[in-house]
Design brief:
Length: about 200
């Protein structure tokens, strides 16, 4: 009788470390904001979490704060990464660099807070466009999981993606049916792990 194993891809979604705009609670979006100095960036725990973990594929947002995060926590992987603009945070348009306190009296901003799917930041990205690009790269990861199960005892491969809070929340909602966008929150310098492409395999 054949024993059934399962194999899956473990997707490690890392949020970039802290920036001055994180500290000041400003919308960053596509703005190219650098990380704070080493200790202030909050990456010590992440560096330990990723230490000595092997990854079959590495992806990274092309924005500076994500590139710097990867270079600090796993410099050995920085040269192997795919730097992909689909992993950017949502584009907040004219609101980038501003805070809630600066925007709270704007009727458009308040409408967006209530219904971000229907309301778009001035000069920014629609929810539909944001959803499509994140879903596109998520489906690419699913295809990797289906094509390339990693042989070995646990029959798993790992993908590392260094990205942004909104992208992580959306990817988690795609992986977990019934989970809303706001149900997943990851701190700057944090990581979540998702199992994708899980299938049974006989041996």
């Amino acid at each position: 009788m054949k024993r059934q194993n399962s194999y899956a891809t473990e997707l490690w979604l890392v949020r970039h470390g802290r920036t001055s705009w994180n500290r000041e609670r400003r919308y960053q979006g596509h703005s190219n904001v650098a990380l704070l100095d080493d200790e202030a960036s909050g990456l010590e725990g992440l560096e330990k979490d990723l230490e000595s973990v092997s990854f079959s594929s590495v992806y990274c947002s092309d924005l500076l704060r994500c590139r710097q995060t990867l270079e600090r926590v796993r410099p050995d992987l920085a040269g192997k990464a795919v730097y992909d603009s689909r992993l950017r945070e949502m584009n907040f348009g004219q609101w980038e660099g501003q805070t809630y306190e600066m925007l709270k009296d704007s009727l458009v901003y308040r409408a967006w807070i209530d219904d971000p799917v229907s309301v778009t930041p001035p000069g920014g990205e629609t929810w539909g466009d944001f959803h499509r690009r994140v879903k596109s790269i998520y489906e690419e990861w699913l295809n990797l999981a289906q094509r390339n199960p990693c042989p070995g005892h646990n029959m798993e491969q790992r993908i590392l993606a260094v990205t942004h809070g909104g992208v992580i929340s959306l990817a988690a909602s795609l992986q977990r049916p019934g989970t809303g966008f706001w149900d997943t929150a990851v701190e700057a310098g944090g990581v979540i792990r998702l199992r994708i492409g899980e299938r049974a395999a006989a041996d």
